[in-house]
Amino acid sequence: MAQINENYSKLQASYLFSDIAKRVNRFAEENPDQPIIKMGIGDVTEPLPEVCRKAIHDAVDEMGTRTGFHGYGPEQGYAFLREAIAENDYSPRGCEIKPSEIFVSDGSKCDSGNIQEIFSESAKVAIPDPVYPVYVDTNVMGGRTGQNVNGRYEGLVYLESTPDNGYVPSPPEEAVDLIYLCFPNNPTGACATREQLQEWVDYARRNKAIILYDAAYVAFIRDPEVPHSIYEIGGARECAIEFRSFSKNAGFTGTRCAFTVVPEELFAYDSAGEKVSINKLWNRRHTTKFNGVSYPVQRGAAAIYSPEGKKEVKTLTDFYMENAAIIHKTMTELGFSCVGGTNAPYVWIKIDGSSWDFFDELLHKTGIVCTPGAGFGTCGEGHFRLSAFNTRENVEKAMTLIKEHFGK
Ligand SMILES: *Cc1c(COP(=O)(O)O)cnc(C)c1O
User: What separation in Å is there between the alpha carbon of 67 and the centre of ligand 1?
Assistant: First the structure.
């Protein structure tokens, strides 16, 4: 009799986006003439940059020739892409990352979800709250938690991101083994300072812990003082893995390309206390379970590092950041306390009371759909998220409606 992995039975169904859809559909049926503006979008809305499309087209044509055909490539990614990443994303920020430390994949969701596999089932894990749900759920699947009690899994250490700490949690008192951090953060849009990240790196090194650093939104940082990579922090090469993606900077959410950095100085321990190279372990896992991102897509990703590509990515991210600035300014002027929106495409807005009640009020009074904070974790309650991934027209309309409703 085949038995399931019962850790999966502990998972809570994620009702967030289906609940939102249900409420929006009901509202639309009852109010057929009311336009609805979706301001909760977590996907990019602008088309794929021209440099990427051209590089992908050219690569497809190349694949149609006997000499330009590419079969299986290196599982870790082609050298042209790994070298471009090291030279453009890391060297200019003073981080020496070798191409052999970069693993190209088809998404940061997979990478940040798969990484836990190479660590002990008994690893103690710290995860921010509120948070991107992948980190929690994959650790539940991996058997590192007990049951979910009142919205929290037994056995996890929750790093609370609240107004009191400016939505940037400090290291816990207790020792943990794995720490997930995400800056600029989804959903709060908050960024950690150099000093705050240094505290995390020092904590990780003291405890021989590993930081799993999700930098999916790095392209939206506008303040040069905000660290772009965990490797800008002294000692991070010995305690951190970094995840990056082409999804949000270059609109690759439907094209699929990302990468993970695992430095050669990074070690964990086996049960005999012997040091094991995490770069080698991840390489083993990646090359066994993954056969590489398609050649045309890697060419498309590499194109963003050309001078023209850099310009297009800047234009694209500037467009979203102008949306974010409009949202942030309007909400602030209306007296809401908000974070994010200045170095991230999300604005995280504080409210009194229940985020689902606020969601309903906003929908019924204005036709605007937000994301209620409670959907991202216990500490998301009392907040809602507005996304800058939208057309300018929708953002402006939404802000006018919000001003009409709240501006009294
Ligand atoms: C969008 C996003 C990613 C990127 O995921 P992909 O699988 O590369 O599309 C990673 N982390 C967070 C927090 C995100 O919001």
Answer: 35
Max CA separation in the chain (angstroms): 69
Mutate which of 109, 317, 346, 389 for ligand 1? The one with the most ligand atoms within 8 Å of its CB, which is: 109
Beta bridge partners of 211: 179, 240
In a domain, 4, yes or no: no
Render 200-255 in DSSP notation, one character per residue.
Answer: HHHHHHHTT-EEEEE-TTGGG---TTS-SSGGGSTTGGGTEEEEEESTTTS-TTTT
Q: Express each pLDDT in 133-153 by its tens digit.
A: 999 999 999 999 999 999 999
Distance 252 CA to ligand 1 centre (A): 10
pLDDT tens-digit profile of 354-374?
Answer: 999 999 999 999 999 999 999
* Token duo for residue 292: 């590489």
Computed on alpha carbons and rounded to an integer, the radius of gyration of the chain in Å comes to 22
The answer to whether 297 and 256 have CB atoms below 8 angstroms apart is: yes
Listed in sequence order, the residues at least 6 apart from 135 whose beta carbon sits closer than 8 Å to its beta carbon are 112, 113, 127, 180, 212
* Single pTM value for the model: 0.97
5 found inside a domain: no
Q: How far is the CA of 245 from the centre of ligand 1 (A)?
A: 7
Residue range(s) defining the domain that contains residue 215: 52-307
Asked whether residue 6 is domain-assigned, the answer is no
Euclidean distance between CA atoms 158 and 126, whole angstroms = 6
